[in-house]
Amino acid sequence: QGVLVPGLGTFAVVPEQINSTEEVYVVRRPVFQLDMDMSCLQDLVFPTVMIPGDIVIMPLDYWWLSQNNSLPPDLVRGCVEETILLYSFQLRDRQHPAFAFENIGILSCQDNVLCMQFHCSCIAGLESQD
């Protein structure tokens, strides 16, 4: 399953085969597919990740987020939208701040390459789930 963060992109987990000399392993690899206004990314390079069509993509669940931080869903939605808007303005102005996602990873720009680096704990957590 994947989660679409409107104006930013989609986080998903895709199966990937790893071949060893003795066996083939299938691991669950987190990926991020950028979905941002290209005018924000004038001089930036970013990896094009394609999420397979059989992965179910769900919209960001603002109600669930609000239940986990005791804020009203409309306030959570507004905070997410304003944060993404601010981030896109910073990219447009050639500022390259890191965008941290708690327990997931960091969206950063290094040497004009915009990339998502997932925390090891995120990857380990995915592998420990059925």
Automatic annotation (TrEMBL):
Domain CCDC81 HU: 57-129
Transmembrane portions of the chain: none
GO cellular component, one term: microtubule organizing center
Coiled coil feature spans: none
Pfam families: HU-CCDC81_euk_2
This protein's name: CCD81 protein
Record organism: Spizella passerina
This protein's encoding gene: Ccdc81_2
